[in-house]
Amino acid sequence: MTLRVLGIDPGLTRCGIGVVDVTTTRKARLVYVGVIRTPADMALEQRLLLIGTGIAEVLDEHEPHAVALERVFAQHNLSTVMGTAQASGVALHTAAQRGLAVGLHTPSEVKAAVTGYGSADKAQVGAMVARILGLTEVPKPADAADALAIAITHAWRTGGVAAPANLPAAVSSSLTPAQRAWRAAEQSARGR
What we know:
With about 190 residues, this protein is an alpha/beta fold. It has one domain (about 1-165): Ribonuclease H-like superfamily/Ribonuclease H (Nucleotidyltransferase, domain 5, 2-Layer Sandwich). Helix content is about 50%, strand content about 20%. The chain has seven helices and five strands; from the N terminus they run βββαβαβααααα. It has helices at about 45-60, 80-95, 105-115, 120-135, 140-155, 170, 175-190; strands at about 1-10, 15-25, 30-35, 65-70, 100-105. A five-stranded mixed beta sheet has the order 3-2-1-4-5, with helices on both faces.
């Protein structure tokens, strides 16, 4: 069985998107990679519309089984984290409209999955993405390579199975300790 995953590295100025096919033996193949760009001087709602439209076009053209996003983490630059969060919300909404399972992965989880080292730099991630996918060059810009890394991570972490948000126990047990702790915290917050 092959799992097709759309990976998204959310951003307001540059939103990396990449689609990969991954077999249950972890063999990955590039299907599509790109970046949705929005100009900084465009109205926020128009920028978000552009991102949503771009993601929708990729979803409709490549029909992935699942979507994976980089989990938004607090940063020192509030405007950067806000833009990232807004782009993530658009991506989540667009995936939910199509009934697709969405996985959220931290930057360190993605780095560890593709390089074996959770503090790898962007160059190391890009080089490993190219190697995993058998590419002669690292996808540019880094947002595109990051999107592919996110997609690969999701496929590898779910064991090549498209898992719904309410994961069955068999799939849930394959999550990392950090992913299990995050999922438990999310479920606890929903119960309040």
